User: Fold this.
Amino acid sequence: MSWQGGLSAYPFVFSDNFPAPSCSAGPCANNGYNLETGFAPALAAGLTTYFATPGLVGQSTNLKTTYAMDYNMAVEQAFTNNFVMTISYVGTGGRHLPISINTNSTNVLLPSGTTQAYLPFPDFTGSSDVLYEGISKYNALQTKLEKRVSHGLSFSANYTWSHSLDDAAEPLGGGIGGYRDASIIPIREDMTNSGWDARHRFTFNGFYRLPFGRGQAHLNHDSALVDAVLGGWSTNLTYQLQSGNPFSVGTANQTNITGGSQYAILIGDPFAPGGTPNSTNPNITCPTSVRNKAHWYNPCAFANPLPASLLTPFNKNNGNPNVPAAGYAYPSYITDEATAKLFLGGKSNQIYGPGLQRLDMSVFKHFHTLEAQYLELRADGFNVLNTPIYAIPSTTNIGQSGGQITGARSLQNDTPNSRFFQLSAKYVF
Assistant:
C-alpha cells in the first residue's frame, strides 16, 4: 500500500518489537517463532499478550498537495560572439512539505525520567504522524561568465551566493528542529538553515587544445613526426571552491530535559579565538586559534540553556506540579513557550563546518592513424593539489573538545578524497 493510502494510519499500521528468547551456549529456549510457523502462535494467542505500548503510525486526514513556487530574473550581456556574462536572481518556495512529527509526545517539559504517564495516549509509545505543514525557501544570486569554443579555448566560471532555510529537512523522516518533540512550541520555530545550505560556491571548468599539428592553425602541413610530437595535445580542468554546511551545537555538562532537544545558545562570534568562558560553562579553556582540526569553533562563544535541575522534583511539589517547591526556580513541568525555550536553548544548524577546495585535471594526446581514426592516451588527476577536505566536527558540543575534527568529508561513491591519478587509453574508429 502507498504511504498516502487510507490504511497507512493506526490501527491498520503500528510498530512494536517481538523480544528474542534468552539464549546461551547450547540449546536455546523455544518461544514458538520459527521459519515454518512464523507468527502463527502469536496470532492464535492474541497479539496483546506479546507486546506492550506499541508505537502509532498515521498521517493528517487533511491531505495537502506539496508544491513549489519558482521565480527568477536574469540579465545577460554579450561582449563578443563567444564571450557572455549572466547575472541571475533565483528563488524557490516550498509549501505543504510532508514532515514526520511525534504527536504522542509530552505537552510539557519535565525533569529527567520517564514520561509515559504524561503522554496524550499513555498506553502507547511515540507516534510517527505525517503532516503537510512544512515550508522551505531558497534565494540565490547566480553569476556566470562563459566563453564558447574558439581558437581551441572554452571555459565557464560560476559563482553562487545563496541561502536555504526550512522547517522540514527530511520528507517523511522527521526534521532537524530541536523544539519539535515538545508540542508546546510551534513547528515554525524550527525554521533554520537547511542541512545542505552552502552560502558560497565557485566552480570553473576549462578546456584548451594546443593549436599545433593536423587540423590546427599551426604546423598543420608538417611531417607525421611533427604531428605525433606536437599535435593532438589538449587539457581540461575543473576547480571547485565551496563554503561548508551547517551543523548543530549541543550543550555540555547539562542535566537532560525530557520533552525536547537541547542546543547551545550562540552569544558571540564562534570563529573568534580567545575570550572568557560563559558562566554556564566555566570549566573550559578558550582556544587561541579556531578553524583547525583541534577547534573548528570556539566553545566560549556559546552558553548552556537552563538545566533540568532547576525544575522541582515530583516528590517535592506537594501534589501541585505548577508551583515550584522551596529552593527550586521552576515548577515540576513547563507548559509555556517562552520558558520552554530557556531550557531548550538555541536552534539547530547555527554555524557552518569546513568547506571544500578541489582541483581535478586531465591531459589528452591524440595519435592520428588511418583517416579519421586515432588513438587517445589520457591522464586524469583528482584533487591535484591534495587539499584536505574535512568533515564537520566529530564533537559538536561546548565542552573542552568541542569543535574537534577527526575525519574527512565523505564525497560521492568512488570519488577519492586524497590526490589520485589514473591512466587510460582508447582507440576511436
Residues 337-344 form the longest helix (8 residues). Residues 172-178 have pLDDT under 50 and may be disordered.
